[in-house]
Amino acid sequence: MHSSPLARTLERMTKALRMSTLFLRTLREDPADADVDSAKLLQRAGYIRKAAPGIWTWLPLGLSVLNKIEEIIREEINGIGAQEVHFPALLPREPYEATHRWEEYGDNIFRLKDRHEADYLLAPTHEEMFTLLVKDMYSSYKDLPVTLYQIQTKYRDEFRPRAGLIRGREFIMKDAYSFTIDEEGMRKAYMDERGAYERIFQRLDLKYVPVFAMSGPMGGSASEEFLAPMAIGEDTFALAPSGKAWNVEALNTPKPEDIDFSATPAASKRETNDAITIDNMVTFANANYPREDGRDWQASDILKNVVIAVKHAEDDEHDEPWRELIVVGVPGDRNVDMKRLEAQFAPSELEEATEDDLKAHPELVRGYIGPMAVGPQARKTNDEALRYFIDAHVARGSAWFTGADEFEQDYYDLVYGRDFEADGVVEAVEVRSGDMSPDGSGPLSFERGVEIGQVFQLGLKYSEALGLKVLNQNGKTVPVWMGCYGIGVSRVLACIAETHHDDKGLAWPMNIAPAQVHVLATGKDEVAFDAAEKLVDELSANGIEVIYDDRKKVSPGVKFKDAELIGVPIVAVVGRDTVNNGTIEVRDRDGSNSEAVSVDSVAQVITDRVNTALK
Ligand code: ATP
Ligand code: MG
């Protein structure tokens, strides 16, 4: 008799995995080079195998979990109306040339040549290809909005592959791209995608924090990174008591209140010898110019002025990339954070000014640089004066001890907003734990996490670079607004392993475990194997996925250890003695429960439990 195709499919889907034939070899020892728990356990439990640094082979158990994670992602992303496509990983150079990413990616890209010497790359991400595909097929506002996605292998020649699947050189990404006629459409697509992310990570039982990834003021569009908080993470984020979180580059300092300077004495210029460093300035001032208010001078009284070079791209007035020196005033008790500062000038890059830069500007007197020789103050008499920026911590009306632009001369009581001005306020210094959070909800704390996904409002960057334009309602040709949205699928799997295990092994959530039940037949007695076989058949008939440890010459101890390592959520132990007493032991892998269930009802009890957990 032949069963129907559907029945055959169901049978295949729920066919128990038998340990006697499963392609699996568990390891008792941690692999020597595994640096984090997920990398150790996924290898020891036979989910993955190393092929090369940062390049992994998926074994049957690993592939099963990966497929389930992908299915959850598909359901949610299809649920917001996105459509799945699949691009090649091997791509021609030209589109990446057009967006400058062929160079910008630097050494992180795998580049190769075909037999005709044409350049190709293994895609690190696919913005260019999606943009060109839509350009190829669509031409009108009537075609939009559309969101496309793929789940696909990506390649990045990471400098330091680490943490197993968490930073691989070949990895699996879900990448989605939205195309809309206007900015409002882009924002809606972004919010839809973001909502799907929240549902995906909740369903995967993976803790996540959406972290604001970009600062508003100096351009750049909205972006959030979804981080899974964990100590092994490479990303630091600042967390407010409100639960909101930011990348340090995206943190905005709350505006300090203006200070009333009506009683502040006029600024005075005083000799301050050998005062190149902040410490020396404090020591010298305390010895020679005690403060009126009785307290000591301290580093936070000093306005430190740092010379920075901004490397601009060519623009309307410059045919070539050009270099601008700027001076940034920061409180003396804080260090400049170049990454935070650079984010304010993106896409231009920053570097510290060189010896030659300073030589070219005699108004910058090393150790005695002050705000009077630059910025709006100096521009009153010198059109060419360098731009001066002030750190966001500096309150208007505050009085400063700072350089007077002459050797061994400093200003005292130089007031911001009275004696000098700035060309702009910037986030220039490091943030510290305890700083007030941008939303005013209390002091910031710092946590570490792994980036599991990112949502990004791209705006017009790619559509302009690649000429993706459509006709709008008025028959005018306009560029398309885009968003891009990534999830690191293989990284997510590792993060779940990282947060769902104990010292004995993995402990998967029910909905992505390679099976829901692990049945162990212990001992040598046929009674146990017969009862186990029957249980496996009944569970399979109920649509439950089972790993069945049917190995004959393997000790119960080894079977228990393997079950703990593999991490299936429900473990049923079938031994001669209990079966003769009419029971089978049912345990939860997480140790929360263990009970003897009657042989007659055990299949139903387990089935109900699985179905409840999967609801
Ligand atoms: P990271 O800062 O960790 O290098 P990224 O910001 O460069 O990541 P994106 O370009 O935003 O990464 O890629 C989308 C997602 O792909 C990331 O959120 C992350 O989950 C995943 N991902 C990125 N690089 C890797 C990698 N080397 N191995 C595994 N997953 C990765
Ligand atoms: Mg990212």
TrEMBL record:
**Subunit (UniProt):** Homodimer.
Alphabetically ordered keywords of this record: Aminoacyl-tRNA synthetase, ATP-binding, Cytoplasm, Ligase, Nucleotide-binding, Protein biosynthesis
- Subcellular localization, as worded in the UniProt entry: Cytoplasm
Keyword Aminoacyl-tRNA synthetase annotated = yes
GO biological process: what's one of them?
Answer: prolyl-tRNA aminoacylation
Which CDD domains does the UniProt record give?
ProRS_anticodon_short
**What is its biological role?**
Catalyzes the attachment of proline to tRNA(Pro) in a two-step reaction: proline is first activated by ATP to form Pro-AMP and then transferred to the acceptor end of tRNA(Pro). As ProRS can inadvertently accommodate and process non-cognate amino acids such as alanine and cysteine, to avoid such errors it has two additional distinct editing activities against alanine. One activity is designated as 'pretransfer' editing and involves the tRNA(Pro)-independent hydrolysis of activated Ala-AMP.
Family note: Belongs to the class-II aminoacyl-tRNA synthetase family. ProS type 1 subfamily.
| Molecular function per GO | aminoacyl-tRNA deacylase activity; ATP binding; proline-tRNA ligase activity
This enzyme catalyses: tRNA(Pro) + L-proline + ATP = L-prolyl-tRNA(Pro) + AMP + diphosphate
Q: What is its EC number?
A: 6.1.1.15
Q: What is its main location?
A: cytoplasm
Instruction: Please identify the protein, giving its name as recorded.
Output: Proline--tRNA ligase
List the record's Gene Ontology CC terms alphabetically: cytosol
Notes concerning its domains:
Consists of three domains: the N-terminal catalytic domain, the editing domain and the C-terminal anticodon-binding domain.
Classification via InterPro entries = aa-tRNA-synt_IIb, aa-tRNA-synth_II, aa-tRNA-synth_II/BPL/LPL, Anticodon-bd, Anticodon-bd_dom_sf, Pro-tRNA-ligase_IIa, Pro-tRNA-synth_IIa_bac-type, Pro-tRNA-Synthase_IIa_type1
Q: Which Gene3D superfamilies match?
A: Anticodon-binding domain (3.40.50.800), Bira Bifunctional Protein, Domain 2 (3.30.930.10), YbaK/aminoacyl-tRNA synthetase-associated domain (3.90.960.10)
